[in-house]
Amino acid sequence: MKKVKVYAPGSIGNVGCGFDVFGLALNVAGDILEVEENNIGALRIIDIIGDDSITRKAEKNIVTVAAQALLNEVGSKQGFDFTLTKGVLAGSGLGSSGCSATAGVFAINELLGQPYSKMELLKFASVGEQIASHQVHYDNIAPSMFGGFTITRSNNPLEILQLAVPDNLYLAIVRPNVIIKTNEAKQMLGNTMPLANAITQFGNIAGLIMGMQNNDIPLIGRSVEDLVATPIRSKLIPKFDEAKEAALSAGATGFNIAGSGPAMFAICQGKAMAENVTKALKQVYIADHAANYYITQADVKGTRIID
Amino acid sequence: MKKVKVYAPGSIGNVGCGFDVFGLALNVAGDILEVEENNIGALRIIDIIGDDSITRKAEKNIVTVAAQALLNEVGSKQGFDFTLTKGVLAGSGLGSSGCSATAGVFAINELLGQPYSKMELLKFASVGEQIASHQVHYDNIAPSMFGGFTITRSNNPLEILQLAVPDNLYLAIVRPNVIIKTNEAKQMLGNTMPLANAITQFGNIAGLIMGMQNNDIPLIGRSVEDLVATPIRSKLIPKFDEAKEAALSAGATGFNIAGSGPAMFAICQGKAMAENVTKALKQVYIADHAANYYITQADVKGTRIID
After folding, report:
1. Which has the closest alpha carbon to B142: B30, B276, B11?
2. Chain A residue whose CA is closest to B198
3. What average pLDDT does the segment A228-241 reach?
């Protein structure tokens, strides 16, 4: 029986100002997915390692729902067994559902002989992602699929732009031990935003792109400020304000929530700064023994075969 | 008596998606300003050539109000005579008030021995610009001062970013013969925008920057779409929809209103395309004998001494 093993990186959606539009692939928090053909003509989840909260039911799991969408499109009745090793808990804000969805469709596409390009695979991955967020958006699945920094310029028709990430951009990430569900976090946001805030956000979006292109880490940091989701979501995250102040005091050029949180990222120039910032964040969350810390750079390869 | 002659280029504010944030300096529609010291210890407008609608009262004219703001800051009691030659009518959407304001402060700064940098001069120019728009914004004065494509990343503190413009970017501009006052056009906009529209705009803003950086004229064109002001302001402009359709049919990659209009710009790849687009626009406005047409590229020098 044919089989394949793939890796899909975690990611930060929004990257602060780019709500539903920007995404950054990380070299941490990715999923490993092994898929093997079976002879029962159905999708089956054999095991999920690293997160007991995720359903094993193939008709409800993000990986298999996305994979099934691809199989339906090509008209295949083949069955496959899935073994998923989670790199990060669901509900962390580090693109857990996005990397599961991209891993699922990428693996099936490989086993079918690559009928689709990575760009074409996004639409199948989005079917899986919808289970988590109840909306179609690409701010996690695009970076997870392609690696690097991605921009959803348009949803309809879908247009994804890619951008190189500065070599000296490091992120210090902390994930405190609370779970925030993406769809609930979305519902807290209103349907409108003040025009003055939108204009501020326009400037930050342009600034973030300029910073990435010009390797200007301070400009990137200044530009990750967000007025859409952060003012509301930061209240759901224990000690957000203290964490931000600690990170900036330790040298970070910017700080915000990863996706819908609770993970947070600090923009750092070089590894030493990221280490200093992590020390400062550990002081803030010293009583939260289940907090996780990551020092990471961008993943530049995206979803890929391993082994 | 000391004297100086300066040129300040016209500009397109907003550039579609970058409402109040983006600006593009043009190699047309600029003002020429001659300033000479006088011995009456007051500012005096000697003549304004090319636009009879502009006030000659020094305490109300954009040029002299901006110049006076600078003189007040340095504590100078010197008097100056101003002769202004307008490159474009006020109320065109081509940055008429912005280039008058930048010309005024730049000229006085020269005559005083350059106490300020161009960046520092922006705040004085904005005092003049406020007369026209009743708001402080830099989407015309920044490109007019610096040339090229500018981004107001932040108003407070003021941060202006600059971006090179592709060599093969041409703009076909048409100004139909109606006057739209900036402050009235602003008042028609609401104080909020739908979040879904803001997200679309975020993608376009990122796309426009990417297009400029990558010399991708089709991407620039796709990205100049705007959901803040264009849906409302386009209704004030005779035949906007026909003009847009004609420009795109003639090859333009994008089309929108310059600032608050009524001038409109078409994004074109190369001069030949801009000429074709202009032909198509002339057919639309064939009955409007007072319409003006410009084929232009970016001005890359900004406000400067001439002669």
Report:
1. B11
2. A198
3. 93
